[in-house]
Amino acid sequence: LATVCKSCIVKYLQTSKYCPMCNTKIHETQPLLNLKLDRVMQDIVYKLVPGLQESEEKRIREFYQSRGLDRVTQPSSEDTVGGDPMGLPYSTFDHSRAHYFRYDEHVSLCLEKQSSSKDKSKAVLQQKYVRCSVRAQIRHLRRVLCHRLGLPLQHVQILFNNEALPDHMTMKQLWLSRWFGKPAPLLLHYSIKDKRR
């Protein structure tokens, strides 16, 4: 574990997937996933630099006010004695509890039914274009597809070039491994298995 400036490590990880200290691979597709705030170091810095905590609080307040956003805060110490259930004090904004997929990078997809000469009557999507987070997995896409088509999950399969894609694959992995350098949207096919099988 290494302690580094948050903005510096985020900028660094935009171009590299390796730790700047030990050169260990962090994560292929989601390097920011394992970043954690170092509360002890933050407290030490706040104590060493007079006025820094107040200055940061002011900048955070101004940031939220300028965008018309509600500031996410944790319950007051009267509501929970000593902070969270583990006994750790809350900071004014706990980043580990406030990640939203809506801030993620997005990928555009086109879902086409795999053409089959034996059955033309099976369900076809009315809206075949989808925009989702790069962290969405094939399993999520299958669930949405099944919901839209009114079919059980086991009857729908997502394909790329006639190859069934694994449920755990993320859209970013798919884009980088099979669609990199091609124009959007990424073209996927779906097949509907016969209910008798």
Question: Keywords for this structure?
Answer:
alpha+beta, Herpes Virus-1, Ubiquitin-like (UB roll), 2 domains, 5-stranded mixed beta sheet, 5 helices, 5 strands
How many domains? 2
Q: Return the string of H and E elements.
A: HHHEEHEEHE
Mean pLDDT: 78
Helix % is: 25-40%
Number of strands: 5
Number of helices: 5
Largest sheet: 5 strands, mixed
Spatial order of the strands forming the largest sheet = 2-1-5-3-4
How is this structure best described in words?
By secondary structure, the protein is of the alpha+beta class. The chain folds into 2 domains: 6-100, Herpes Virus-1 (2-Layer Sandwich); 102-192, Roll (Ubiquitin-like (UB roll)). It is built from 5 helices and 5 strands. The chain has helices at residues 6-13, 39-48, 52-67, 138-149, 171-179, and strands spanning 106-113, 129-133, 156-160, 163-164, 186-192. A 5-stranded mixed β-sheet has the order 2-1-5-3-4. Strand 3 and strand 4 (163-164) form a beta hairpin. It is elongated. The N and C termini lie far apart (51 Å). Residues 128-191 form the RAWUL domain. This is Polycomb group RING finger protein 1. One of its GO terms (biological process) is negative regulation of transcription by RNA polymerase II. GO terms for molecular function: promoter-specific chromatin binding; zinc ion binding. Its main location: nucleus.
